[in-house]
Amino acid sequence: MSVIDDILSEKDPEKIRKETETNYREYLNPFVLRMFKNAGLDIIEGRREGASVWDVTGDKYIDCVTGAGIFNVGRHNREITDALKKALDVYDMGGWISIIRERGLLAKKLAEITPGNLKYSLFCCGGGEAVEVAVKLARGHTGKTEIICMENGYHGVTGFALPATGREVYKKPFAPLAPGYTHVTFNDINAVKAAITKDTAAVLLEPVQGEGGIRPADDSYLSGLRKLCTDNEILLIFDEVQTGFGRTGKMFCAEHSGVVPDIMVLAKSMSGGLYPISCAVFTEEISDFLIAHPFIIINSFGGTSLACLVALATIEFIEKNNLPERAAKMGKRFMEGLSSLKITYGELVVDVRGKGLMLGIEFPEESIGPRMASLLKKNGVISIYTFNNPRIIRIMPSLVITEEEVDFVVEAFEKSLKEIRAQESERKSKKG
Amino acid sequence: MTGSAEEIKKQALADFSKYVNPQKARVLKNAGLDIIEGKRNGACVWDITGKRYIDCITSAGSFNVGRRNPEIVSALKKALDEYDLGVFLLCSKQKADLAKKLAGIAPGDLQYVMFGVGGGEANDFAIKLARGFMMKTEIISTLKAYHGHTGFSLAAIGRDAYKKPFYPMVPGFKFVPFNDLKAAKGAMTDDTAAIILEPVQGEGGIHPATDEYLQGLRKLCDEREILMIFDEIQTGFGRTGKMFACEYSGVVPDIMTVAKSLGGNLFPISATIYREELNDFLVTHPFVHLSTFGGSDLGCIVGMAVIDFLVNNRIPEHAAAMGERFQKGFDVLLKKYPNLLLEVRRKGLMMGLQYTNDSIGPRMSYQLAQNGVMAIYTGNEPSVMRLMPVLVIQPDEVDFVIDALDKSMAAIIQQGGIEKY
Ligand SMILES: Cc1ncc(COP(=O)(O)O)c(C=O)c1O
Ligand SMILES: Cc1ncc(COP(=O)(O)O)c(C=O)c1O
Fold first, then answer.
1. Whose CA is closest to B352, among B179, B226, B234, B213?
2. Do B265 and A124 touch (CB under 8 A)?
3. What CATH number does the domain containing B369 carry?
4. Residues B208 and B345 in one domain
5. If you count DSSP H runs as helices and E runs as strands, how many of each does chain B have, helices first?
6. Distance, CA B157 to ligand 2 centroid (Å)?
7. Is B336 helix (H, G, I), strand (E, B) or coil?
8. Which chain A residues are Cβ-neighbours of B257 within 8 angstroms?
C-alpha cells in the first residue's frame, strides 16, 4: 500500500491524535503542541469545505483563521482542486529556468487585475520571499539602501523581510540583521516625512496591518505617502499578502484609496489554498533593473507551472463569484453583529474594526484573547489572536462564507463573551 | 488557449517577454533553450512543438524521482480529494508524519524538523537557529557557495554578483576557500556560531568536498563548539548515489537543510533538520520562525511519497550505477576532445563537465539542445556544464546523452573559435 493510502485509510481519531502528538513531541516542537493545547487549539484538521473545517474527531468549526488569509476561495475549493488535478495529468513544476507558458499567462492576468501601471511579475513561493524581492528591487532600482517600514508591521521572517517586521521578539536572537531599515509609527505621515533621508529607497507597509492587530491605513495617509514618495523619488511598496484577492472588499486593498504603489507583494490567497505561490508585481520602470540583471534573483520553486495554473483558476473563481463584493457584504453583516456586541459587552470589547472580511476585535487586556480563542472553539469557531498583539482576535473567514455562517460566528462570539463576563464577575466576587 | 503548437509557443514567448522578463527570454533563446515545456515523463520533456529532450537541468536536482512520476502524481491527486494546504498555525498530522520520516532517513541523530517552502528559506532558518542557539553571531561560508536568495542565505553565497546591488547584507559572514581545512580553522573565532557548506558545491561548479575535509571540519567544530550546517538541497535524496551526500564521509552535521527533490517535482517544500539539543532554542521561542506555506498538508504528503519511492526502489543505488555508466562515456570524451573538455567532476549523478574556457558553456548548451539534451552551465561558474538528469534515467537514455555530447563537441570543434580564449 502506498503512503497516501495508509494515511487516508486511518479513520480512528484517537489513534490519529496520539500518533500526531507523539510525532510533534519527538520530531517537531514539543512546546508548540503544549501551547496549542493550553489555548484549546489542538485541532487536527480532517475534512475541509467552504468556510468550515472538521477536526479528525468529526467536530465542525467555522474557520476564522484561514492561515491569516490563505483561503479566500474557501477551504478545499472543489473547482480549483479539480483544476489542479487536471493540470497534474499533463504538468509538473516545470523547469526552473525554462520559459513557462503558464507563468507568462499568470503574469499577464496579474498585470490586468492589479491597479494602475503595475505590470511585471517576479514569482516566488512564500510571502516573505516576495517581500525580499520588493526590497531588493527597491535597492537595485534606486541605488539607495534605506527602507522605511512600520512599527508592528509583519512581513515574514527570512533575511531581508525580517528586519522590516516591526516586532523585536522575532529579531533579537538573530542579530545582527541586515541593516538599513527604519521603523516609524503607522498611519502617521509626519513620522515618515521625518524619517526620509537622501538614502531612502522605499516605504514598505501593509494597507491594513494584519499581525499588528487589524489596523487599516487611512486613505488620506496612503495618498499622502504616494505624494511624498513621488516627490522624493522613493518607491512605495504595498504588502498585500493578507489584504489581496478580495479580502478587504476590493480585489486589492489599494483600490479603496486609489493609491497605486510601485511594487505590490502578493501571496497567501493567490495559492487558492492549495499550492504555494507568491510574487512581487512592479512597474515597467523598475523592471529595467531586472532586464539588466535577468538572473540575479532566482529560486527553484517560485511560480511553477502547477502553481501558475492554480493561481489562474483561483483568480477566475474570485472574479466569477464576485468575491470582493461578497466580502464587502458579509463584512458589513459582521460589523453590524459585532458592533452590537460592543454595546452589550462594553467592558470587554474595546474596539471592532477592519475592512471587508479582515476584522479584528480588541479586548482590554492580553489574557482575554487566548481565553476567547479557547471559548470560541467550544462554540464551533476557530479564531486566534494576532501575532504582534494578543489583545486582538482576528476574524478572517473564507470569502465564500454564507449569511447563516456569519450569524453563527457572531452568536459564538456572544456566547463566549457572556462566559468571560461570568468568569470575570466570579473572579471579582472571590477577590471581594 | 487554442491554436497550433507553433502559435501557442510564439504567444507564450511574447507574454513571457512582456510580463516576466524580455532579457531572460533572449538569453534562453541564445542558449537554444527557448523551450516551452509540454509533455513530461521520466527523464524526458517535450517542447510543445513535439521535440523531445532529455532533461539534464532538472532545476538543479529538483526532479530526482523523474518528471511527473506516476506514483507521486497519484499520491498528490488522492490527497487532493481530502486536503488543502492546511493551516500552518495548527497541528497537522501530515506534518508530524513527514517529520518522523525525515528523522528516519537523515543521518545520525538529526531528529527535529522545521518546515519551509523553498531551499533558501530552510538555510535562513538554519543560520537563525545557529545564532539563536549558540548566542554567537559569526557564520563561516565557502567561496563560490550557493545557498539561495533569501537574506541570510544570500549573505552566505560566495559570489558577489548576486549580492552587490542589494547591499548592505546581513553582517557576520566570512568566506574561506572550499576544501581547505587550514583556512576554515584560521577563520574560527570565539564568536563563530556555525560553518555552512554544501558537501558537493553545485552552482560553484560541481566540486565534491573530500572526506578528509569534512571529517577534519567535524573535529574542529567539536573542539571549538561550532555548529556544522550541511546544505544538502542539491545533493540530497539520492543525487550523489547515497540518500545524503554526507554519508560518504560518515560525517553527521548538527543541522541539515533539504528542499528541491523533497517536493517530487510537484510541490514546493523544504526542511531544516537538526539535533535534539538545538531544540532548546525553539522550546523557548516556539513561534519565532513562521512560514505560511511551509510544511503544508499537501506538501508533506508529496514529501512522504517521494521518500517511499526513493527507498522502495533503491534509487540512490540506481543513481550510483547510472553515474558509473556516464563516467565510461566521459572517459572516452576526455580523450577525444582534450582541447574542449578539461576534466569531469562527479559524485553519483551530480556531474560537472569542466570545459577549457567560459565561452564553451553557452555554445555547448546550444548544441546539446539541437541534439535533444537540455543542459546548462552552473550559475557561479560558466565554464562548467552541469549534468543532473533525473535519477530514474535508464541506460539507453544515458547513452543517448553521451552520444549527444559527442556530436555537440564535434560540431564545436568544427566551428572552431575555442583557441581565441
Ligand atoms: C502581511 C504579510 N506579509 C508577509 C507575510 C509572510 O508570508 P509567508 O509566511 O508566506 O512568508 C505574512 C504572513 O503572515 C503577512 O501577513
Ligand atoms: C545548494 C543549494 N542551496 C540552496 C538553494 C536554494 O533553494 P531555493 O531555490 O529553493 O530557494 C539551492 C538552489 O539552487 C541550492 O542549489
1. B234
2. no
3. 3.90.1150.10
4. no
5. 14, 17
6. 10
7. helix
8. none
The secondary structure of residue B19, as a DSSP letter, is I
Residue B272 placed within a domain: yes
Residue after which a domain boundary falls, among B312, B347, B364: B312
Domain count for chain B, please give it. 2
Q: Which domain holds residue B44?
A: 31-61+314-415
What is the set of domains in chain A, with CATH numbers? Answer: 79-320 (3.40.640.10), 322-431 (3.90.1150.10)
Type of residue found at B7: E
Q: How far is B95 from chain A (nearest CA, A)?
A: 8
Contact status, residue A239 vs residue A278, Cβ threshold 8 Å: no
Is there a domain that residue B19 lies in? Answer: no
Cell 537514455 found at: B397
Q: How confident is the model at residue A1 (pLDDT cuts 50, 70, 90)?
A: low
Q: Which contacts (CB < 8 Å, 24+ apart) does range A162-170 have? A: A162/A128, A162/B151, A163/B151, A164/A131, A164/A135, A164/A204, A166/A212, A166/A388, A167/A211, A167/A387, A167/A388, A169/B285, A169/B288, A170/B288
Residues of chain B with pLDDT under 70: 1-2, 379, 419-421
Taking the C-alpha atoms of residue B398 and residue B388, their distance in angstroms, rounded to an integer, is: 11
CA B405 to chain centroid, in Å, comes to 22
Predicted local confidence at residue A420, as pLDDT: 95
Which of A152, A241, A245 for mutating ligand 1's site (highest number of atoms within 8 Å of CB)? A241
Average model confidence (pLDDT) across chain A: 94
Long-range contacts, B159-166 (Cβ 8 Å, 24+): B159/B203, B159/B379, B159/B380, B161/A296, B162/A296, B165/A136, B165/A139, B165/A140, B165/A289, B165/A293, B165/A296, B166/A135, B166/A136, B166/A139, B166/A140, B166/A160
pLDDT digits (tens, 9 = 90+) for B348-385: 999 999 999 888 988 999 999 999 999 998 767 779 99
Question: What ipTM goes with this model?
Answer: 0.94
3-state secondary structure (DSSP) of residue B44? strand
Give A243's Cβ-side CA count (13 Å radius): 28
* Same domain membership, residue B322 and residue B204: no
- Non-local CB neighbours of B251 within 8 Å, separated by 6+ positions: B211, B214, B215, B217, B218, B228
* Cβ contact A300–B28 (<8 Å): no
Q: Would residue B11 count as lying in a domain? A: no
A40 interface with B at CB cutoff 8 Å:
no
Residue A194: count other Cβ atoms within 10 Å of its Cβ: 11
Give the closest ligand to the alpha carbon of residue A304: 2
pLDDT tens for A207-257 read 999 999 999 999 999 999 999 999 999 999 999 999 999 999 999 999 999
Give the pLDDT confidence score for residue A40 in this predicted structure. 75
B37 and B47: one domain?
Answer: yes
With a 6 A CB cut-off, is A215 part of the ligand 1 pocket?
no
CATH code: domain of residue B196: 3.40.640.10
CA–CA separation, A132 vs A123, rounded Å?
11
Q: If you take atom 16 of ligand 2, which residue's CA is the nearest one?
A: B234
Question: Do B76 and B202 share a domain, yes or no?
Answer: yes
Task: Name the percent of chain A in helix, strand, coil, to the closest 5.
Answer: 45, 20, 35
Å between B309 CA and nearest CA of chain A = 9
Same domain, B76 and B127: yes
C-alpha cell at A134: 520588493
